[in-house]
Design goal:
3 helices; alpha+beta
């Protein structure tokens, strides 16, 4: 994968959260291990050819389209108390309107 591809993704996500990409390479930068310099959020941006739960999310997108709704998937590994939320970054602000 071309280095500029993941760098562009990091810059795009950083801009979305009103911050900037961490210079150099994450933890090597001595600024933060996060991919961005956001003051409150530790944001990791991962780009992989295959993500195991991507198939589920793609199916959810199609199902949500049929009902004209915003797709959002919550994953939790058996035995773990940590729920993981997956959504389209462009939908995040809309989803935030529904959070209590």
């Amino acid at each position: 994968m071309d280095r500029s591809t993941w760098k562009k993704d990091e810059m795009k996500v950083a801009r979305f959260f009103d911050t900037v990409r961490t210079p150099l390479s994450g933890i090597s930068s001595r600024h933060s291990g996060s991919d961005t310099l956001h003051k409150d959020l530790y944001i990791e941006i991962k780009m992989r050819k295959k993500i195991p739960f991507l198939k589920t999310f793609k199916e959810t997108i199609e199902q949500a389209k049929e009902e004209n709704k915003i797709p959002l998937v919550v994953f939790r590994e058996k035995g773990s108390r940590i729920p993981i939320v997956m959504c389209n970054l462009n939908d995040l602000k809309k989803i935030g309107e529904y959070v209590i």
